[in-house]
Structures are given as structure tokens and as C-alpha cells.
Amino acid sequence: VNLSTVMIPENVQKVLQLGENFSMPTLNKNEVTIEFIKNFENSFKKLPVHVRPHIRNRSAHIINKLPSYIPPRNPLISTVLMRSTKDFFKNNTNLISRSDKGNVTVALDRDFYIAKIEEMLDDTTTYSVIAKDPTNKLINHLRDILSRWKKANFISEGTYKSLMCTSGSLPRAYGLPKIHKEGVPFRIIVSSLDSPLYNLSFLHRILFNSLTT
Q1: d(Cα 9, Cα 88) in Å, to the nearest integer?
Q2: By C-alpha distance, which of 95, 81, 119, 103 is closest to 3?
Q3: In whole angstroms, what is the distance from residue 81 CA to residue 205 CA?
Q4: CA dihedral 123, 127, 133, 136 (to 10 degrees)
Q5: pTM
Q6: If you average pLDDT over residues 33-41, what whole number do you get?
Q7: How far apart are CA 160 and CA 174, in angstroms?
Q8: pLDDT tens string 44-103
Q9: Predicted pLDDT at 59
């Protein structure tokens, strides 16, 4: 759905219609390998010590094969359509989002999107401005409570490492357009991915569903 003031070429529309779950294989194999190793090491240190040798041995074989792997490619999509799409967005300020319902791809004017979000965040009955980034404070409190739990044998060393966060970022808010409603209002979504308390929230959900009050 094109809600912007810019006419979108047919080739670009074809790419956008593929949806956000469609992705192109990257051509930078070195970057893929490095990112894979970084993510692997970050997850590896959270595993129990006794399973690490087995996991590392199996992963080493996979990592060694990454540089020689050639993913399947569709020349039409990877060259003509993708080049047209990149050129279009390079010369326009359109913003692409998905709709609040129906998983529809929506094109918006960036200024329109920003104005809508700022209007919602200006609601002082719902949101307030804080003077300081609370990330470090959250991380310190998280470290303190996890250390006490580990010392009391409430959680294992592996659980401690999986719940701990040393360099998280604040949750990020964005808006999804309600294209089925008049005036296209937005719904605020808050993504806590990579935030200090993201991993801890899974433990809270497990305990909340398991314990009775």
C-alpha cells in the first residue's frame, strides 16, 4: 500500500511485495563469517562447561565451510530488481513499514511518519522525558541481583551468564500504521531486543506461569 506522495516504480513494487521475511543472500562472505563467529562466541560462553568441547568441534567444521558456500541466486531479483530498488530509495526519503494488521507492506513519507510518532510521544499522560540514560543503572542492578541469586544457588553459572548483560541498549519504539482505520493512526511497538533485561524477561515469564500466589 503506497501512502506516500511518491509514485513507486513497478520493479520496486515487486521487491516490496516479497515482504519483510524475504532476504537476499549476501555477497560479502568475510563479513558473514566474522558475524557468525561473533554470535557463536557470544552464545558459546553461556553454555554449560561440559558441553562446550562438543559444540566447538561441530561448529569448527561449519565455520570452515562458510567461505566456500555458494547460496542459490535468482539473477533477475539479485540484479535488475534489487538495483532498481536501491536506486529508488537512494533518491527518495520514503519509509517502508508493515501494517499493524494483515502483514501488508506500507510506503510512507518519512516526514509524515515522524510527525505521527512525535504526536503520540508528546502525550504527557502516557510518556515522560527522563534526564539521563538509565542503561548503566539497569545493568548494575541486574548484575547485583544475579550475583545474589548465584551465590544463594538459585541459579547456575550457565544461567547467570545467559541472563547477564554487559553492554545492552535501551528498548526502541516504533510505530505501525493502522491502514484499516481512517486517518491512518499508529500503534506504538516497543522492541526490547538487546536491552539489559531482555533475557531476564524470559525467566520472569517462566516463573510467573509456574508459581501460584
Answers
A1: 8
A2: 95
A3: 43
A4: -160
A5: 0.65
A6: 79
A7: 31
A8: 777 777 888 888 888 888 888 777 777 666 666 667 777 888 888 888 888 888 888 878
A9: 82
Residue 73: strand, helix, or coil = coil
Question: Do residues 189 and 174 touch, judged by C-beta distance below 8 A?
Answer: yes
Find out whether 36 and 2 touch, Cβ atoms under 8 Å.
Answer: no
Which residue carries 502483514 as its cell? 103
For the beta carbon of residue 32, count every other beta carbon within 10 angstroms: 16
Residues 6+ apart with CB under 8 A from 85: 11, 12, 15, 16
DSSP 109-170: EHHHHHHHHHHHHT-TTT----SS--HHHHHHHHHHHHHHHHHTTSS-HHHHHHH--SS---
The span from the first CA to the last CA of the chain, in angstroms, equals 48
